Structure prediction request, 193 residues.
Amino acid sequence: MAYSKRGDDDALDFLITKYKNIVRLKARSYFLIGADKEDIVQEGMIGLFKGIRDFNEEKQVSFRVFAELCITRQIITAIKTATRQKHIPLNSSISLDKPIHDEEQANTLLDMISAGNMTDPQEMVVSKERIIFMESQIEGVLSSFEKQVLALYLDDCTYQEMSITLKKDVKSIDNALQRIKRKLSQHILNVQA
Prediction:
């Protein structure tokens, strides 16, 4: 153990090889949404490495017990992190560079938004018709509360400002924005199909 802490790669490899089966055994008990078993094993191996790094021989505990605890904690932390709702807005957002209809068409959402800088009258009319069409589609998909939240969001209001204006708590505003994103992206997919 002391050799691996001093940077002896052979000692570190020996410990990792020796305890790899314990990591696999521990990983078998857990499930991580969107990942395969090897991802969980990898998290367990990180826990084993941290156990090797942090083990204190002066304590009254064996390395095996300490390593199992580190492995389990690392796997559980990875699962909790993956199942947290914190990153859903980032993971479920719609890219402005994504083509509107199909992969071969060049028009993107960003093109539609930046259409305000057009000088060609024909393009301006087509762009305005698209915006009217999008507004009518939004009208049919969103609830009245969701429409209010979206209007405030598009006016660059913060969650706090929306909360005060609509007399709802911040969590309700956040939930409404998540529903809006989900509904609109689902609607865009249905229109494309």
Q: What stands out?
A: Residues 170-192 form the longest helix (23 residues). The radius of gyration is 26 Å. The chain has a mean pLDDT of 79.
